[in-house]
Amino acid sequence: MRELLRVVLDGGYEFDEAADGLAALEVARRRRPDLVILDVMLPGTGGIAVLEAMRADPRLAPVPVVVVTAWPQMEEEAAEAGASRFFMKPFEPDAMKDAVEELLAR
Amino acid sequence: MRGSWSLGRRMLAASAALALLVCAGLAILVVAITRLQDATSRERRSKDVTVATLSLEKVVLDLDAGVRGFVISGKPRLLAPWTDGLHQLPRRIAVLQRLVRDDRAETRRVHDLVELINSYESEFAEPMITLAGTTPAAVRNQPQLVSSQGDPRIGAIRRRFDALLTVDRRRASVNTASVRRETRRALVVGATVFGAAIVLILLFGLYLARAVAQPIREVAGGATRLAGGDLSARMEESGPGEVGTLTRAFNAMASSLEQSHDELQSQYERVRKSDQLKTELVSMVAHEFRTPLTSILGFTNVMRKRTLGPEQRAQYLGIVEDQARRLAGLIDDFLDVQRIEDGRLELKQELVDVGQLLREEARAFAVQTARHSLELDLPAEELPVYGDPSRLLQVLGNLISNAIKYSPDGGQVELVGARRSDVVYVGVRDHGIGISPELQDRIFTKFFRGDASAQGISGTGLGLALARDIVEAHGGRMGFSSTLNRGSTFWVELPTADRADHAQ
């Protein structure tokens, strides 16, 4: 997944990766990224909590977040938590690229 | 043993006793009424006798008046009372005699009276009438002739009448008193029987209420509590016959209800748990299948659309192949689980050197990870077991890949093979994140993954469950020890080949 995203978004972006929710939040607070792509695995696990923690943090609240998941029912939950875009696995690489570019252009 | 009498028998006995008592009372009442009737008829007879006596006396006085009138006046017209009296006399006598027939003393008195009347008639009245008829003047001039002969006779007769009437009057008054007494007695007996019957019926009703209605009310109360959901409602198992049976049956019913309710409850819990597990499984399957698919589709898309150098091309193809293999492995795992659950797992029976298998797996995994060092600790001799080499490789591969996955910071993974008495022991030890105590008893549960999902460690939650099933199918055991944040050791024990020989 992470390798794929690096390849798909091959347009001069800088990447940071984290293997779990806590690490992701730590990296986000340290680097204050322009955009976050969040792979949410299961309902009720870390992914959505990371998004909520970001939205509660005044410095991270405006950062656009793209949620990627294999779980269709997550869409509503993700939207409520403040996701900017929602992608179901498997997603179309070009659509992901367009979404990232559009969010960054704002 | 009254205590063991059934309710039906008790009620029957009580009814019978009640009926018997009422019958006895009625019998006493009937006797009293019969005596009252006797007394009444005796009283009526006394009165009849008095009336008959008075009638007879009147007839006799009429006779006398006729004789005297005719003798003194000489007029045949005045003889009419005599003729009438003579005509009536036999009937009056017969009536009186019939009335006193049953009383010997009275019969004798009446007999004496009739003798006197007869002698008055034949010795005085008839000669007088004859004399007055033939020589009226001789008789008319001597009125003393009538009184000297007639008066004593009539006086004697009247005295007899008086005596008779006195006796009758005395009897009548005795009979009246007896009638009054018997009436009072019959009334008292009747009232007593009536009152006793009422009291007995009330007592019987009270007994019925106590013996039947009370327990039924209690059972109904218990049933209401049961219906209200209080399944612990029980009754005291007492009471006669059917009531005891009823309470026992009620308690048995309540117990069985409670038991089946508990069974249902625990079944529901099991179903709910398995349902929850299924939900987890579905999300797991979605994630585990879609994630490699995303990479495969994504990279093929990139390769189709972009112009790539041969090196990049080879790298992307390698990723696609890995992800496709991961998918294939997942499908194998699911199928294995299904096979084992259906009891369709087929194992080859070959002589296998577990030491050799460990060496192979160590080599294979060493290439895949740069951060971990795999340390092998094996004896010089073989570790022979009977079994299916590919399945045993699957078990060892699962343990080693777990050791690597769950020590994300890298480090040593120790692989130990040894022969211990009649088992071959394999231990895989890591220095990774370990397993928290509260999760330890669930890690062999299918699809259970502890905190792994939250920590971003991929997997299906099937590996350990499958591994243990395979080890057990080989007649072996599997276990582990783990300390949170310090690492885990998973071990397998398989029977040695020579022990398996003995067993066969």
General description of the model:
The complex is a heterodimer of chains A (106) and B (504). Chain A is an alpha/beta fold and 106 residues long. Chain A has helices spanning 2-8, 21-31, 46-56, 74-81, 93-105, and strands at residues 36-40, 65-69, 85-88. Chain A has a single domain, classed as Rossmann fold. Chain A has 5 helices and 3 strands. In chain A, strands 1-2-3 form a 3-stranded parallel β-sheet, with helices on both faces. In chain A, helix 4 (74-81) links the parallel strand 2 and strand 3 (85-88). In chain A, helix 2 runs parallel beside helix 3 (46-56). The radius of gyration of chain A is 13 Å and the shape is globular. The termini of chain A are far apart. By secondary structure, chain B is an alpha+beta fold. Chain B folds into 3 domains: 13-204, Four Helix Bundle (Hemerythrin (Met), subunit A) (Up-down Bundle); 273-342, Signal transduction histidine kinase, dimerisation/phosphotransfer (DHp) domain (Helix Hairpins, Orthogonal Bundle); 350-503, Histidine kinase-like ATPase, C-terminal domain (Heat Shock Protein 90). Helix content of chain B is 71%, strand content 9%. In chain B, helix 1 packs antiparallel against helix 2 (80-99), helix 6 packs antiparallel against helix 7 (310-341) and helix 9 runs antiparallel to helix 11. The longest helix of chain B has 85 residues, at 143-227. The interface between A and B is medium-sized, with 23 and 25 residues.
Which strand order do you get reading across the main beta sheet of chain A? Answer: 1-2-3
- In order across it, which strands form the biggest sheet of chain B? 2-4-5-7-6
User: Most extensive chain contact?
Assistant: A-B, 23 and 25 residues
Rg of chain A, nearest Å: 13 Å
Low-confidence stretches of chain A: none
Class based on secondary structure composition and strand pairing of chain A: alpha/beta
Number of domains of chain B: 3
SSE succession of chain A: HHEHEHEH
Let me know the number of strands of chain A: 3
CATH architecture of the largest domain in chain B: Up-down Bundle
Query: What is the total domain count of chain A?
Result: 1
Amino-to-carboxy terminus distance of chain A: 26 Å
User: Rough shape of chain B?
Assistant: rod-shaped
CATH architecture of chain A: 3-Layer(aba) Sandwich
Mean pLDDT of chain B comes to: 85
Secondary structure tally, helices of chain B? 12
Work out the helix count of chain A: 5
